[in-house]
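User: Sequence for Potassium channel family protein below. Tokens please.
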Amino acid sequence: MTKPEGGFVEKFRKQLDVFFEKVEYPYMILGFAYLGIFSVQVLAQPPKQIYDALEGASDVIYWIFAIDVLLRALYLGKGFFTFAGIIGFVKQNWLGLASLLLPAFRALRVLRVLIVLRGLKPFMANRASKVGLVVGVTLPILVYTSAISVLEAERGVEGANIQNFPDALWWALASVTTVGYGDRFPVTEDGRYIATILMLVGIGLFSSLTALLAAWVLGENQKREEEKKQADAN
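Assistant: Structure tokens for Potassium channel family protein:
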């Protein structure tokens, strides 16, 4: 009885290996589609029927990623139910877990950016590519997502000074760089939650950018020194 069961489990794991390998790029498309749907809902302000249809489409994408996380848990089998298995699962799938748990709260809708980043996971193969994505992709997406999220929270609220996308984008840029001119600022609780997340994440992203530039400068200097040593030796 053990052999057939073991054979079934092994076959199931091999099928999941093939599945995980093939779905990464579709996931990237789904991630950007998720953000696109949210953008249309906020910026275009479509009629209720269209808005609800778009919300249904975003829910479908959300649950596709949820099923993916479930399949990755099943892939571990009995190993998932050990302490080491759970810790390992969280380490390997923290981005997928965060993208499912955090954006469920309305005030954290800015973290829909995590859904997009989950789709970019196949490009995070090494530290250099991760830093490049942080600087070249994550930062622009974070600013954009924060802008439409705060616009959704602030628009139509009495006393709010962020009522259109250009103002929201200006506020997001000023906040993520920690400049904070103060001419545009959120007045709602949801808007302030978004601002807090944006400023905290912005500090981390710009720290990453600084570290990347420093490493590049040091690497170039070291390269020149090695070339000079080789030239002197010859």
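The two ends are 71 Å apart (CA to CA).
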